[in-house]
Amino acid sequence: MQLPSTLLENAVNEFAKLPGIGKKTALRMVLHLLKQNANEVELFSETIAKMRREIKFCQRCFNISDSDICAICANRQRKQEMICVVENIRDVIAIESTQQFNGTYHVLGGVISPLDGIGPDQLNIASLVHRIGEEKTAEIIFALSPNIQGDTTIYYIQKKIQHLPCTVTTIARGIAFGGELEYADEMTLARSMANRLPVQQYVKS
Amino acid sequence: MQLPSTLLENAVNEFAKLPGIGKKTALRMVLHLLKQNANEVELFSETIAKMRREIKFCQRCFNISDSDICAICANRQRKQEMICVVENIRDVIAIESTQQFNGTYHVLGGVISPLDGIGPDQLNIASLVHRIGEEKTAEIIFALSPNIQGDTTIYYIQKKIQHLPCTVTTIARGIAFGGELEYADEMTLARSMANRLPVQQYVKS
């Protein structure tokens, strides 16, 4: 694609670095911005730069935050002795949008994956272990991806905290609501058979 | 979707204003930028702002340009007496990428569409008519969208320039290469029957 201007080309190249954006979509975005008021584009650009410059990570749970301690950690209405361990900030947002969880989070920043060169030291695991000991946490809920890396991470952390008196659970895995049995993969189906629940407990939940 | 930070939310809202970008995709982009170096995000933001601030439109053909006259208009290798009339800059880029056209362009900025409140005065039509008279243009090629608005625009411009001695043509319309007859709409099929070509002319082109 030959573009008629270097300024345009640079802008398209910047947009094309974003995930899932090809050159054509990038061009569409840039031409859209070109049609906007100069002020609006200035605002767009300044908002992005300011976000990157000023955003903080909560010193306790590593969630994104406007201040040193995030709104969830600072909220005394929430059960501070319950920690949900997640991979990233998107997972926090997903769980928050269910409005069903009233505890706090700990964002690991990924899962242990030796093939990708990610070991425990690259993740916020030491701080989690320290936090559990320090805060006398009552329950840890793992909400990690249901794959080998997620399971490895759970296993690793559990080993590290087994001397501490806190309950360790993981979110339920099984057939999704609205999912059809015949399209479920064998692993999920086999596991959900093995971990079957008494109907009375299921109805209550 | 509840976001944990106002800075994050503002950035997501800015991205969500772009065409075809919803809140979830916007969040994915913002979190991607958050993982980049501060310098890279600064560059992203500055490139967009600079593009909007400094980009120019060619004073002759209204194509995007880094200078007052665009590279195509300034190129003496191209047939300056041949003008291809297009709706927007994307069409220029599309035709340029075929590498088959060696004339110049005139970007109208849209087509006449009374329903959307777009009349001839909102478009670069007066400048086109003036340019054809001034430059003694030999041929005008209309490459507009094949719909009522496009046809109206062609008809309007043709009326304005009929006293001038230039040839007026439009790009061929018909069944696309690789297209299947049975899936073509009736209008296209009927028109391509009516405008059929002698096979010898077809083979030559």
UniProtKB/TrEMBL annotation, chains A, B:
MF-aspect GO terms: DNA binding; zinc ion binding
Keyword set, alphabetical order: DNA damage, DNA recombination, DNA repair, Metal-binding, Zinc, Zinc-finger
GO biological process: DNA recombination; DNA repair
Zn finger (C4-type) location: 58-73
Domain Toprim: 81-176
Name of a matching Pfam family: Toprim_4
Cited SUPFAM superfamilies: Recombination protein RecR
PANTHER family with a match to the protein in the record: RECOMBINATION PROTEIN RECR (PTHR30446)
Homology family: Belongs to the RecR family.
Function noted in UniProt: May play a role in DNA repair. It seems to be involved in an RecBC-independent recombinational process of DNA repair. It may act with RecF and RecO.
Cross-referenced NCBIfam families: recR (TIGR00615)
Protein name: Recombination protein RecR
Organism: Panacibacter microcysteis
Gene that encodes the chain: recR
